Amino acid sequence: MTNSRDGKAADGGSKASMRSRAAIAALLVVVVALMLWNPPQLYFWLKAVHVIAVISWMAGLLYLPRLFIYHSESETGSVQSETFKVMESRLYRLIMTPAMAVTWIVGLWLAWQGFGFAGWWLWLKIAAVVALTGVQGIYGRAVEDFGNDARKNSVRYWRIMNEVPTLLMIFIVIMVVVKPF
């Protein structure tokens, strides 16, 4: 891609990727340092980080299958198809995967620190988060497939897959808020 004004490459994707990786690395260093230091109120600050990471991850899990639907409906090799490839890849690599990692790292610490991994509700929640991680894996393979112009699943499949994270999220929220077991 070139800039029409000066003819130089205008690819900001690699710069955005580098900035994203640096920000994620810095966040992880700070979170790990805080976990080791364990100052007063740390639990509540990390709970806030966990909620932010979960929201970011869920946004990606809910949006990416919509992109797959639109991508499936576009013509292979078209400008639209190529744009979807970039959008899908960046969403998956720069937002979803780091958000999932922070969710897991901080979430496991919170489960250990706050509950000692006790309670059926917690284990059911963790099982549902494992399922969400599996959905992320399915989406990751699809990002690769779409990137190679392979469309292995139908629009109907992606419409159904769009609902799976929602159902898991509802279950997780009930487990966390109600703690029925």
What does this structure look like?
The protein is flat. It has one domain. It is mainly α. 20% of the residues are buried. Helix 1 packs parallel to helix 3, helix 2 packs antiparallel against helix 3 and helix 3 packs antiparallel against helix 4.
Distance between the termini: 55 Å
Helix content: over 70%
Outline: flat
Order of helices and strands, N to C? HHHHHH
Q: How many individual helices?
A: 6
Share of β-strand residues: under 5%
Biggest beta sheet summary: none
Structural class per helix/strand content? mainly alpha
- Poorly predicted runs of 5 or more residues: 1-10
Count of individual beta strands: 0
Number of domain units: 1
> Quick check: average pLDDT?
90
**Over the alpha carbons, how many angstroms does the gyration radius reach?**
19 Å
